[in-house]
UniProtKB/TrEMBL annotation:
It is found in: Cytoplasm, Cytoskeleton. Functions as component of the Arp2/3 complex which is involved in regulation of actin polymerization and together with an activating nucleation-promoting factor (NPF) mediates the formation of branched actin networks. Arp2/3 complex plays a critical role in the control of cell morphogenesis via the modulation of cell polarity development. Belongs to the ARPC5 family. The gene is LOC104705255. SUPFAM superfamilies: Arp2/3 complex 16 kDa subunit ARPC5. Pfam families: P16-Arc (PF04699). This is Actin-related protein 2/3 complex subunit 5. It comes from Camelina sativa.
């Protein structure tokens, strides 16, 4: 079973997420959208059950997802190791009900499913330990 960080260490996790957020903002300003997405997905989901950490990390990933314009190019540049975690965040995005977020998540979901197959969806939905 994976180790989870207790809530008293949540502040340290949030500090790391804030550092990651600044790096992602810098990458986005340089139009390095795929690098921003990779950076956002690294170390995700945070090994904690603390919802503050999960929400802070979602905000970072959301910014990177929304910046993607060339989905095929993004998937070509993204290593397969990121597919499952990206799928989890796409479902999180769909759960928001926000129209622009849902539209972007559905576009990426379609292309990601073509690339990674249905197994990616199944792994995402059955992994109850590493939630985003």
């Amino acid at each position: 079973m994976a180790e989870f960080v207790e809530a008293d260490n949540a502040e340290a996790i949030i500090a790391r997420i804030e550092t990651k957020s600044r790096k992602i903002e810098s990458l986005l300003k340089q139009y390095k959208h795929v690098e921003a997405l990779k950076t956002a997905l690294e170390g995700s989901p945070p090994k904690t059950r603390d919802e503050r950490c999960k929400s802070a990390n979602w905000i970072v990933v959301h910014r990177a997802i929304m910046a993607i314009k060339d989905i095929d190019g993004m998937l070509n540049a993204l290593d397969a190791e990121y597919y499952d975690i990206l799928m989890k965040y796409l479902y999180r995005g769909l759960s928001t009900g926000d129209r622009p977020t849902c539209d972007q998540c559905l576009k990426i979901h379609e292309k990601l499913t073509e690339r990674a197959g249905l197994g990616c969806i199944l792994r995402c939905l059955t992994d109850t330990l590493n939630t985003v």
